[in-house]
# Entry
Amino acid sequence: MQIIASLVAGLVFGLGLIISGMGNPAKVQNFLDLTGAWDPSLIFVMGGAIAVALPGFWLVGRRVRPLFADVFQMPTKRDIDGRLIGGSVLFGTGWGLGGYCPGPAMTAVPFFRSETILFVIAMLVGMWFARQFGVTGPITKQAASA
# Structure
């Protein structure tokens, strides 16, 4: 059942990304271009995401355990360090230059645009590199929610 729930959630999320235009790098880059052809429509996408997520987080927070797992997996790291700042800068730079972040890039793969395929390959190589050379570590800890 967990696999089916994950599949449905992923499909709904991916469909939302496509409908909102997040899979279109030009739309994302225009949103980030405050001095040029600024497109503020993605503010509504973010606002809509927050409006949907907040009640969901509230409902989940009231549960003793998840529906399809034994325990909640919650982040344990709360400090701001160089790794977090560096990763944020790298992510933001890549998002601004490429117009993609990982989720929307994956939803755009079926359109077979060469820049999308190149971005996804580079992203996957970067993920592999980070894991191979110990750049990443566990960011969650299994902890039962009270």
Summary: The first helix runs from residue 2 to 20. Residues 138-146 have pLDDT under 50 and may be disordered. DSSP finds six helices and two strands in the chain.
